[in-house]
Amino acid sequence: MRWRETLLPLLLISGTACGASTPPEKASGASADGTPSSSESDSMFPIWGDEARARGYSIPLPFGVNLSYMNMRQNIDVESISLTGLNLGSHPIPDDMFNIGVGDTRQRSKTENLRLDMWVFPFLNVYGILGHTKGSSVSNISVDSDPSRYDSGTILHPNPDHIISQAVHSGYESGALQNLDFKLNFEGTTYGAGVTLAGGYGNWFTILDTNYTQTSFDILDGKISALTVSPRVGYRFEFQGIAGPSHLSLWVGSMYQDVEQEFRGNLSDLGLPSALDSVVEDGRFDVKQHLSSPWNMLVGAQYEITQNFNVLTEFGFNDRNSFFIAGEYRF
Questions:
Q1: How far apart (Å, rounded) are the C-alpha atoms in residues 247 and 268?
Q2: Which of 67, 307, 312, 318 is deepest in the core (most CB within 10 A)?
Q3: pLDDT tens sequence across 257-276
Q4: Parallel, antiparallel, or unpaired for β 63-84 and 320-330?
């Protein structure tokens, strides 16, 4: 029975992620919180809960509803930007004419989530997430072309592709087609599920939270898929609160996110200069990107207001900056 003694949790940790974030993202993104102690419950959950209480463990109430907000900023690596369907008058421009170089890309996102969870065992929590993610990414790009790929034609019948390619290359050489901002705004519904493993000894606790989320866009095609893994370790302080015995939990940890983002849509929706309207009228873009760094550090705190209510906050830093705040009701 000793393995149960080391796995029985001291507190509930809530996991939420945004795509993308996802964003979300999440989303979007993961976070953690401690929960209030529970008294004897009529629910059959958590399984082995009565045994845990008989051994003197303070375990969470079995069910929870969590409302949260996350603001995240992070660097993105763009794998590719492709353009299709461009036309100059009645002449279609070859899809592979442009060489698009991508420099720094920074993404910002905001996610509001509703999370429903249940403790299946005193050390195992399962949950589902439904939320809304909104954000933008800005890439510094340059556009060039190689005129030598196209035959120049004759004086009477010049090759339009050669002329266009020359014009683009001249614009690149002059600097007019360098250091351009390519901005994408995205918004959509985030949904997913996850599991939390928790254990501890005395007032020390450790958490491993894992979840998978997707964000489906409302204003673009494509999606953000995110796998998030967040280990944490912390300490719970006991004191007398406004409604009886209470707890303050503090922790440090890290977050790993494996995020794949793909954005597709109409070039005419990007707010490009009006002089390009006739060129991009039927044009499409496809952008594939991923996180520059999958890891960042976390610090957080949770305060138990009453047995049923708690609030928490968490900050992320290093290569991903994030702010998370949530309120939770347990029953």
A1: 54
A2: 312
A3: 999 899 999 988 887 777 67
A4: antiparallel
